[in-house]
Each structure stands twice: as C-alpha cells, then as structure tokens.
Amino acid sequence: MLIILITIYILITFVLTVLGIEKQTEVLKIFFISLLLTPLAGLIYLYGKKNNSTPISYYHCHECNYIYPIKMTDCPICMEKGIKVKLKKYQRPYTIAEKIGILNVA
Question: Is the dihedral of CA 54, 55, 61, 66 positive or negative?
Fold first, then answer.
C-alpha cells in the first residue's frame, strides 16, 4: 500500500513538472518543491508564478515555405526574386507544419 502511495506521489510530481514545461517556467524548481514539500505546494507555485517568457511570433511565406522568427512584412527571399509576398503571422510553427509538411527555417 505504501508503494502505491509513493508511486502516485511521484506521478503527480511529474505531471506538475510537465505542466511547468508547457507554461515555460522554472521546471527544476517546480519539481523539487513538489517532491520535497508536497505536490500542492508545487501547484501553488506553478500557478502563482507569473509567466516571464514572451511568446515568439513566426512569419510564414506561402510562396517559398520559409519561416522567420522575427517580425517582417514581406519575404526577403521572394523579394530577391522580384516577387512581393506578404508573410502570415503564426504563434506556433507546428500549425504551419501541419498544413504544408516540410518547412525551411531562415
């Protein structure tokens, strides 16, 4: 019975650690707080902590399938070819990859 309780405790600790990875916070700190104190303390720390990371916007060119992690309005590769193509803004590059398959990152 004790082994089952310890396993559940460690499993909850790992779940909180994965939630910390998704929230982009200090993962090791959440893991050790959850493991050494309680998972409840780790949960309070996880949701009480302000998210310090800034989201990155990605800009995709549908003509040459390049992705740019910096803010641009037109594709520089297509402009060299003489074509003016507006870039479309995405929050995650995975949504672009699902639509077109292979990506070229500039």
Answer: positive
CB 13 within 8 A of CB 41: no
Exposed e or buried b per residue across 6-25, where buried means at least 16 C-beta atoms within 10 angstroms of its C-beta: eeeeeebbeebbebbeeeeb
Q: Taking the model in full, what pTM does it have? A: 0.44
Q: Cα–Cα distance between 61 and 18 in angstroms, integer?
A: 33
pLDDT in tens, 55-101: 778 888 878 878 888 888 888 888 888 888 888 887 766 666 666 66
